Amino acid sequence: MTEDRDIPRDRTGDTDGGLREHEVRTALLDLLAEVGTVTATEAASRLGYSSGLCSFHLRQLARHGRIEEAPHRGGRARPWRLARHSPTADGSAEDAFGDLTRGLEDESWQRWLTQRDDAPPEWRHDAAFSAVAYLTPEEMNRVAEAVRQALAPYQDREQRPLARPEGAQPVALITRLFPLLPHAPKTTDRD
């Protein structure tokens, strides 16, 4: 069994960055949706990753309830399948995937915070920021599109490693635009 410490590390010593984690886990979910069941070795062969990396991310997906072990007849092979539980309470599997994605983003952020001092000096900073702006729904959509357009020149680098400049590393780019709702009034025993 592959332990977490056996995960392939990149040149900086970090385990695969947040974007790569999302890429690998999304690819694994897509593969499971296509073929039904898969082992880490089969996934590695189909997706071009190492079996250790696939094994790690399959276990992470299972930990988050997205997949489960498939029945098998013993042996060392450990097949996985999409979880057979019902979608979220409102019936939306898309919401469940969104929750998983946000959880993985938060997990990657926490790992960055705890391991930042171990990164090479040129990578020890981040550009995290937040803002509140008063927007209409149309303006919010325009801001989201502007962010997508700003990132567009870099998107092909994920699928085309030769397009990456020397020294490029995966960087998590997370944007969440949502309306700030008022706090719900607190109820008391008298209400």
What does this structure look like?
With 191 residues, this protein is mainly α. It has a domain at 4-123: Winged helix-like DNA-binding domain superfamily/Winged helix DNA-binding domain (Arc Repressor Mutant, subunit A), CATH 1.10.10.10. The chain contains five helices and three strands, in the order αβααββαα. The chain has a three-stranded antiparallel beta sheet with strand order 1-3-2. Helix 2 (40-47) packs across helix 3 (51-63). It is globular, with a radius of gyration of 20 Å.
Question: What keyword list fits this structure?
Answer:
191 residues, mainly alpha, Arc Repressor Mutant, subunit A, 5 helices, 3 strands, 40% helix, disordered N terminus
Q: Which CATH architecture of the domain at 4-123 is right? A: Orthogonal Bundle
Number of helices: 5
Net shape? globular
- Average pLDDT over all residues: 78
Instruction: State the major sheet.
Output: 3 strands, antiparallel
Rg over CA atoms, rounded to whole Å, is: 20 Å
CATH topology of the domain at 4-123: Arc Repressor Mutant, subunit A
CATH-wise, what's the superfamily of the domain at 4-123? Winged helix-like DNA-binding domain superfamily/Winged helix DNA-binding domain
Strands, count: 3
Topology of helices and strands:
Layout: H1 18-35, E1 37-38, H2 40-47, H3 51-63, E2 67-69, E3 80-82, H4 93-115, H5 137-151
Antiparallel strand pairs: 1-3, 2-3
